[in-house]
Design goal:
Helix 11 links the parallel strand 11 and strand 12. 27% of the residues are buried. The protein contains 20 helices and 12 strands. The longest helix has 27 residues. It is α+β, with helices and mostly antiparallel strands. Helix 5 crosses helix 6. The chain is elongated and about 95 Å long. It starts with a helix and ends with a helix. It folds into 3 domains: 121 residues, no CATH class; 142 residues, no CATH class; 89 residues, no CATH class. Helices cover 53% and strands 15% of the residues. A 5-stranded mixed sheet has the order 8-7-6-11-12, sandwiched between helices. A 3-stranded antiparallel sheet has the order 1-2-5, with no helix packed on it. A two-stranded antiparallel sheet has the order 3-4.
Length: 493
């Protein structure tokens, strides 16, 4: 080890480089060079130094030549005649790695590449660290902007196509990572388990080319495909009174003592083809809900709350799967309907409209949904509503009647259940809208799902663990002989 360290630091190239940097610092100090210019030059110098040192590290390993033959799993492999070069793009820049190959013939599969196993090289040309950093940019910003940022900071030009391919290849490892995750520690969980889902459109490209000419009436250049967004978390009960909710809503001030969600996880699924069959995105999310309910509430000791808006397709999944949950209609969707009812009788923005909403909201929170519906019907008749206002009020009444079983708010408040779907609505915004719906963006199904998968890991604060998992998994899959190779290396040293 000491001899290797001396070999590194006695390298004339590196010594000359460091000497050049020292001279630059002295001259910059003497001439009064602005610190930002010095910083910029030093950053570029350090990238170049990193490239030199990394190449030196690789060179110190040798080529992986263990002699004319190599025994592997009962087979005798022959050393091929020529060294094979591999391109390796690190965060410091590009390296060329010369390797000895063992196999049967030059033009057949290379069965063992000792240096690749020793270094645990990724399957692609791009280092694991560069993949990590570049995709951390991509899950936040467009591929083009991420490419520009990488080139500006690291001086590495990765094309949009390369970043897209990297994204989709990486996303194929998400499912296995998710299944390998441990159950959250019980001490970090709340006593209620909450599952919540919603839909969010993703702008899609056409699967088939558009025929030339003008579009027909109502035909759009591009359409959206609904992603089913789900969230699972635990939380402690928070009992409240109806009047407290009304006050909180109209003051627009969250109560300070409200408990926070624990161990929150979000994901989104598009309906797509998997293994030759079309799989519904909603089914994927509700399968996940069932898995979470089984793993995080195995003895069914926690009350499970399912909190959603009035989307019948989502509630039908609860019924189809016979989920044992307390179904709750999101209160803010209820409030939207009350405001619509108010504007059938009161001027928009008036104090009268606000009083109307406060009164009906408090009644609903007290469990008097039926009375509110009956009151709407009476007012519609007495006020002799016609036309659009009548249609609007009828829609409100239908919405409440269709969802009445999920509007037992007096019971929910007494038990301390959450009644607002802010978590999943936030997920729709942060997970989908903020990345997928930027100006001009259009997606194909495979690329959209890959981005949603990786972005969910980032938002769930699982990014670091995911990359650690994939490095270990790839080391096992790509180099099952790695332990044996390292023994050869030790003996050769």
């Amino acid at each position: 080890m000491i001899e290797q360290e001396q070999a590194i630091f006695n390298s004339q190239v590196i010594f000359t480089f460091l000497e050049k940097v020292a001279v630059f610092i002295q001259l910059a100090a003497q001439s009064g060079t602005p610190i930002d210019e010095v910083e910029d030059q030093l950053w570029n110098d350090m990238l170049n130094l990193g490239q030199l040192l990394l190449q030196k590290f690789v060179d110190l390993q040798g080529t992986g030549d263990f002699g004319p033959t190599l025994e592997q799993e009962g087979k005798t492999l022959r050393r091929l005649d020529t060294l094979h070069e591999k391109r390796y793009v690190s965060v410091f820049g590009e390296l060329k790695i010369q390797r000895t190959i063992y196999g049967t013939r030059e033009n057949q599969k290379h069965e063992v590449v000792p240096l690749d196993a020793r270094l645990n090289l990724p399957e692609s040309d791009f280092s694991y660290l560069l993949q990590d950093w570049s995709q951390a940019l991509c899950v936040h910003d467009s591929y083009q902007q991420s490419s520009t940022t990488l080139e500006r900071i690291l001086g590495i030009g990765l094309s949009v196509r390369s970043l897209e391919h990297m994204n989709q290849a990486m996303a194929q490892e998400v499912e296995e990572f998710r299944k390998a995750q441990p159950i959250p520690d019980a001490s970090e969980e709340g006593s209620l388990l909450v599952v919540t889902a919603d839909g969010k459109g993703v702008p899609m490209r056409r699967d088939t080319p558009v025929e030339p000419g003008r579009r027909k009436r109502g035909e759009k250049a591009n359409s959206k495909r609904q992603a089913c967004v789900g969230a699972v978390y635990t939380i402690n009960p928070f009992p409240r009174q109806a009047n407290e909710i009304v006050e909180e809503v109209f003051r627009e001030e969250r109560q300070k003592k409200r408990p926070s969600p624990q161990q929150k996880r979000v994901r989104a699924e598009l309906t797509r083809e998997m293994d030759g069959e079309e799989v519904n995105g909603k089914d994927r999310i509700f399968e996940w809900f069932e898995e979470e309910m089984e793993s995080r509430n195995p003895g069914a000791e926690k009350a499970v709350v399912c909190l959603m808006d009035g989307d019948r397709a989502l509630w039908n999944k609860v019924t189809e799967r016979e989920l044992h949950v307390h179904g709750i209609l999101d209160l803010y969707h209820v409030m939207e309907r009350i405001w619509k009812a108010a504007y059938c009788f009161c001027a928009e923005g008036s104090e009268e409209a606000e009083a109307f909403v406060k009164q009906r909201l408090e009644r609903i929170l007290e469990g008097k949904v039926g009375r509110v519906i009956g009151g709407f019907r009476q007012m519609m008749t007495k006020q002799n509503l016609r036309g659009e206002k009548k249609k609007q009020l009828e829609n409100v009444i239908s919405y409440f009647e269709n969802n009445q079983e999920y509007m037992q708010y007096d019971h929910y408040l007494k038990c301390g259940y959450p009644i607002g779907s802010g978590v999943v609505e936030g997920a729709c915004r942060h997970l989908v809208k903020d990345r997928m719906e930027r100006t001009g963006m259009r997606w194909r199904t495979e690329g959209a799902q890959a981005m949603l998968d990786l972005r969910s890991l980032y938002l769930n604060e699982e990014w670091k663990d995911f990359h650690k998992h994939r490095r270990h998994k790839n080391a096992h899959n790509l180099y099952p002989e790695r332990e044996t190779i390292n023994k050869y290396w030790s003996q050769a040293a």
